[in-house]
């Protein structure tokens, strides 16, 4: 864990030392899960480093906060500048960036409106992911994803991750690397922190936002890339068993990037290797973020840091 530290963390507009970024145990967030957050990657390219889709992540943070009546006193631009500042102050790239907003130390009680809003942005070294081509062995979870009108799936909220934790623990304890949750009606939803794609008959399918999934930024990037590669993309409710008879399947997410699924419930996906459509999308994604192809969508926000040796993950 020692690797996951840097000199500074951004707090409400100022850089403070890593060790000073502490909160009181009676803070609202600790008792009632009142936080929203982002996970963002800064990649290194041959001539520098750049943060992937930074404005989109910050707009989503503001949206997540808005759903929870947590007005953030910063604009998208200010939050983007804050990220650049903290990365440059820490001099760490490639890295992972974790902005978080929460209800802090105020009045103890369910109503969050009497507790102050705190915003922090941390980053820490996270190396270039060296994609293993083995793929992930996953299961369908016995836990469902959040039902509509219980917890808002479109908010990237800390409390939603209690559901994610149940999915992830069950999967790992049973020898899988991740679980895929069904939605409340039994249709495919997503992994504990990854969106799901399936390929069958040359068509790329993904679950729509109505099936209790997060509006993933990697998901939207892959949809854009697929359309440009001439791949038909269909967003529709997907039955569980499609996972067992599809040609290819993969996860997307800031952490997962593009990770192909080797098996689901011990049934091989295709022949278990990364199929051609997944490979094409995977390669296109990594070529752009690693600066091996032009950043034609302006997805990278440059940061001025000396790029370090890739850190193994
Ligand atoms: C963060 C997250 C994802 C992935 O979203 P990205 O924007 O691609 O990182 C998918 N599902 C859930 C539940 C998440 O919290």
Describe this structure in words.
It comes from Edaphobacter aggregans. It holds the Pfam family Aminotran_4. Acts on leucine, isoleucine and valine. Belongs to the class-IV pyridoxal-phosphate-dependent aminotransferase family. By secondary structure, the protein is α+β, with helices and mostly antiparallel strands. It folds into 2 domains: 8-125, Aminotransferase class 4, branched-chain amino acid transferase, N-terminal domain (D-amino Acid Aminotransferase, Chain A, domain 1), CATH 3.30.470; 136-274, D-amino Acid Aminotransferase, subunit A, domain 2 (D-amino Acid Aminotransferase, Chain A, domain 2, Alpha-Beta Barrel), CATH 3.20.10. It has 7 helices and 17 strands. The strands form 2 sheets. Strands 8, 9, 10, 11, 12, 13, 14, 15 and 16 form a 9-stranded mixed beta sheet that branches. Strands 1, 2, 3, 4, 5, 6, 7 and 17 form an 8-stranded antiparallel beta sheet that branches. Pyridoxal-5'-phosphate is lined by residues 39, 156, 190, 193-195, 214, 216-219, 252-254.
Secondary structure elements and pairings:
Layout: E1 8-11, E2 14-17, H1 28-32, E3 35-37, E4 40-45, E5 48-52, H2 54-67, H3 76-90, E6 95-103, E7 117-125, E8 136-144, H4 160-173, E9 178-182, E10 188-191, E11 195-200, E12 203-206, H5 217-228, E13 233-235, H6 242-245, E14 248-253, E15 257-264, E16 267-268, H7 276-289, E17 300-303
Parallel strand pairs: 8-9, 8-15, 12-13
Antiparallel strand pairs: 1-2, 1-7, 3-6, 4-5, 4-6, 5-17, 6-7, 9-10, 11-12, 11-14, 14-15, 15-16
Helix pairs in contact: 2-3
This protein binds pyridoxal-5'-phosphate (PLP).
């Amino acid at each position: 864990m020692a690797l996951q530290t840097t000199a500074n963390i951004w707090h409400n507009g100022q850089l403070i030392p890593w060790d000073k970024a502490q909160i009181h145990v009676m803070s609202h967030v600790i008792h009632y899960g009142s936080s929203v957050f982002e996970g963002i990657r800064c990649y290194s390219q041959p001539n520098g480093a750049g943060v992937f889709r930074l404005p989109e992540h910050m707009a989503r943070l503001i949206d997540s906060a808005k759903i929870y009546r947590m007005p953030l006193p910063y604009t998208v631009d200010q939050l983007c500048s804050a990220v650049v500042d903290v990365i440059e102050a820490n001099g760490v790239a490639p890295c992972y960036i974790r902005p978080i907003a929460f209800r802090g130390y105020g009045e103890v009680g369910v109503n969050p409106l009497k507790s102050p809003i705190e915003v922090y942005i941390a980053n820490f070294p996270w190396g270039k992911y060296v994609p293993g081509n083995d793929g992930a062995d996953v299961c369908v979870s016995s836990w469902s994803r959040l039902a509509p009108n219980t917890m808002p799936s479109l908010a990237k909220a800390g409390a939603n991750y209690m559901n994610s934790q149940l999915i992830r623990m069950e999967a790992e304890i049973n020898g899988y690397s991740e679980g895929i949750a069904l939605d409340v009606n039994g249709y495919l939803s997503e992994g504990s922190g990854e969106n799901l794609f399936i390929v069958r008959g040359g068509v790329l399918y993904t679950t729509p936002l109505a099936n209790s999934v997060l509006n993933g930024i990697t998901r939207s990037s892959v949809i854009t890339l697929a359309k440009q590669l001439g791949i038909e993309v269909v967003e529709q409710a997907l039955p569980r068993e499609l996972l067992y008879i599809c040609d290819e399947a993969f996860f997307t997410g800031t952490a997962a990037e593009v990770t192909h699924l080797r098996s689901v419930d011990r049934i091989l996906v295709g022949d278990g290797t990364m199929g051609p459509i997944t490979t094409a999308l995977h390669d296109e994604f990594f070529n752009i973020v690693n600066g091996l192809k032009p950043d034609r969508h302006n997805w990278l926000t440059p940061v001025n840091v000396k790029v370090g040796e890739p850190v193994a993950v």
